[in-house]
């Protein structure tokens, strides 16, 4: 994920910028050269995408951490609410029982 920027600069200026650096042209020399050319092009694409995705991954991690904190609070509030509902139900049952005794 962390390709040295200096190395990528050399690869981009020397190879990627060269219009003759294509897998089809490299295939004329050998299948190994074609594979290497494809690999270099893929690494260039990967590096470009990784630079776009990295900040988004950081923001996602921050958002997930904030979400986890909020969910803990929500779960606590839901537990409190359930206790209050149970208490209210018990009080209503007691009231109903008292009303039937009269």
Description of the molecule:
With 102 residues, the protein is mainly alpha-helical. It has one domain. 88% of the residues lie in helices and 0% in strands. Helix 1 (5-16) packs across helix 3 (31-101) and helix 2 crosses helix 3 (31-101). It is rod-shaped. The chain starts with a helix and ends with a helix. The relative contact order is 0.06. The mean pLDDT is 95.
What is the total domain count? 1
DSSP helix count? 3
Strand count, sense and barrel status of the largest sheet are: none
Instruction: Quote the average pLDDT.
Output: 95
Span between termini: 78 Å
Helical amount: over 70%
Q: Beta-strand level of the residues, as a percent range?
A: under 5%
Radius of gyration: 32 Å
The global form is rod-shaped
Instruction: Tell me the number of strands.
Output: 0
Q: Pick out the low-confidence regions.
A: none
In N-to-C order, the SSE pattern is HHH
Structural class: mainly alpha
Supply the key terms.
rod-shaped; 102 residues; mainly alpha; single chain
Short overview:
The chain has helices at 5-16, 23-29, 31-101. With 102 residues, the chain is mainly α.
Outline the secondary-structure elements.
Layout: H1 5-16, H2 23-29, H3 31-101
Helix pairs in contact: 1-3, 2-3
């Amino acid at each position: 994920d962390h390709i040295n920027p200096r190395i990528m600069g050399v690869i981009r200026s020397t190879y990627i910028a060269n219009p003759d650096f294509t897998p089809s042209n490299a295939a004329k020399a050998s299948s190994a050269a074609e594979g290497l050319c494809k690999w270099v092009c893929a690494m260039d694409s990967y590096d470009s995408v990784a630079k776009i995705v990295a900040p988004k991954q950081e923001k996602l991690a921050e958002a997930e951490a904030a979400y986890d904190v909020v969910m803990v609070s929500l779960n606590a509030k839901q537990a409190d609410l359930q206790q209050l509902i149970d208490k209210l139900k018990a009080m209503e049952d007691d009231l109903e029982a008292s009303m039937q005794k009269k």
